[in-house]
Amino acid sequence: MAAKIKSGDTVVVLAGKDKGRTGKVLKVLPTENRVVVQGINMVQRHTRPTQADPQGGIKNKEASLHLSNVAIADANGKATRVGFKVENDQKVRFAKTTGDVI
């Protein structure tokens, strides 16, 4: 199956506590159908001190979101669906709302 959302894409959150916010995709977890978006779905984790982090304490980090709860943002910043087409013998993704190549 072709990936509609890739790392580095700008996405809009469609559902959940961060609905309406936009962010950049940091990581895609295709086997779990989840994505990690920068600054979205922040959770607190208690970490114990280690040699790498002698302080330890409570750290904020991004938790993953389900793919169905995010959509690619088009040039106007609105949520759009993704289509595929062939240009110059190359398969490319394009925004359904504007027709722009992503």
UniProtKB/TrEMBL annotation:
Its GO CC terms are:
ribonucleoprotein complex; ribosome
Query: What SUPFAM superfamilies would the database entry show?
Result: Translation proteins SH3-like domain (SSF50104)
Q: Does the keyword rRNA-binding apply?
A: yes
Q: Which domain of life is it from?
A: Bacteria
KOW domain mapped to chain residues: 4-31
Alphabetical keyword list: Ribonucleoprotein, Ribosomal protein, RNA-binding, rRNA-binding
Q: Which family does it belong to?
A: Belongs to the universal ribosomal protein uL24 family.
Could you give the subunit structure recorded for this chain?
Part of the 50S ribosomal subunit.
UniProt protein name = Large ribosomal subunit protein uL24
**Organism for this UniProt entry:** Brevundimonas halotolerans
